[in-house]
Specification:
Length: 117
C-alpha cells in the first residue's frame, strides 16, 4: 500500500508564530521577541517566548494554559505590552513575522495591535 504524504500546506508544526523587533540605532536598541503558540500532547495550550538582544542568545519562557480562551487572553496582554513599549525601552516593537494559518483568531489579535502589516 502506498504511503500517504502530507502536502506542505497541510502540515504546520506550530499553530502560530509571531516575530517582533524593536530597533532604534540612535538609542542603541536592537531587541527581538518571538512568540510560538502550540498545543501539547495533552491538549494544553503553550506559549513559548524567546526574547533578547539581536545577535545574542536571549531567554526562553514557557507558559501553559488549560483552555484556548485563557491562552488568548494572556496573548493579548503580551501583545499590548510589546506594541506600546516606548516608555520602557525607548521604542515600540514592530511586527516582522506572522504565521497563524490554523488560528485566524490569533491573527486578528495580532493585526489589531499592528494593523499596517
Amino acid at each position: 500500500m502506498p504511503e500517504a504524504k502530507a502536502s506542505r500546506k497541510d502540515y504546520s508544526p506550530l499553530p502560530a508564530y509571531i516575530g517582533l523587533q524593536a530597533i532604534n540605532l540612535d538609542k542603541n536598541i536592537a531587541r527581538y521577541y518571538n512568540i510560538s503558540i502550540t498545543q501539547d500532547l495533552f491538549s494544553v495550550w503553550v506559549i513559548l517566548i524567546n526574547h533578547g538582544g539581536i545577535g545574542f542568545k536571549g531567554k526562553i519562557r514557557l507558559f501553559s494554559y488549560s483552555s484556548f480562551d485563557e491562552m488568548n487572553k494572556s496573548l493579548k496582554k503580551i501583545l499590548r505590552k510589546r506594541s506600546n513599549s516606548t516608555t520602557r525601552i525607548g521604542c515600540n516593537y514592530a511586527l516582522t513575522s506572522l504565521q497563524s494559518s490554523r488560528l485566524p483568531e490569533i491573527q486578528r489579535n495580532v493585526l489589531s495591535f499592528w494593523p499596517s502589516h
